Amino acid sequence: MNKKLLSFLMLIVVTVVLAACNGDSGNSDGAGEENGDTGEASSGDTEGSEDGEASDDGTEITFWHAMSGPHQDAITELTDAFNESQDDYTVVEQNQGDYETLNQSIMASGVSDDLPTLAQATSSNIPDWASNDLIVPLDDLLSEHFDPEIQEDIFQGFLEGATYQDEIMAMPFSKSVRVLYVNDDIVEELGVEVPETWEEIQEIGSQMSEDGDERFAMGLEATVHMELETMARQNGAEWISDDLSTVDIGGEAAVEPMQFIADGVEEGWMRTAGEDGFMSGPFSQGEILFYIGSSAGLAHVAPAAEENDVSWSTAELPVYGGGDPLTLLAGNDLTVFSSASDEEQQGAMAFMEFLLQPENTAKWAMDTGYVPVTNAGVESEDYQEYLEENPRAEAAALETEYATASPLFVGSGEYWDLMTQAQDNMLIDGEDVQDTMQTLEEETVQIIEENN
Amino acid sequence: MQNKKTWKVTFRAFLYLLPMLIIIGVFNIYPIFKSFAMAFYENYNMFSGENDGYTLENFNILFSDEEFHEALTNTFVYVLFVTPISIIISLFIAIMLNNIKFLRPVFQSIYFLPFVTSTVAISIVWRWLYHSNYGLINYFLGLFGIESINWLTSPDWAMPAAIIMSIWKSLGFNILLFLVGLGTISKTYYNAAKIDGASTWQRFRNITVPLLSPTIFLVSIISFINNFKVFDEIYALFNGQPGPSNSTITVVYYLYKKFYTEFDYSVAAASGIVLFVIILIFTLAQLWLNKRFVHYR
Question: What is its subcellular localisation (chain A) (predicted)?
Answer without folding.
Answer: Cell envelope
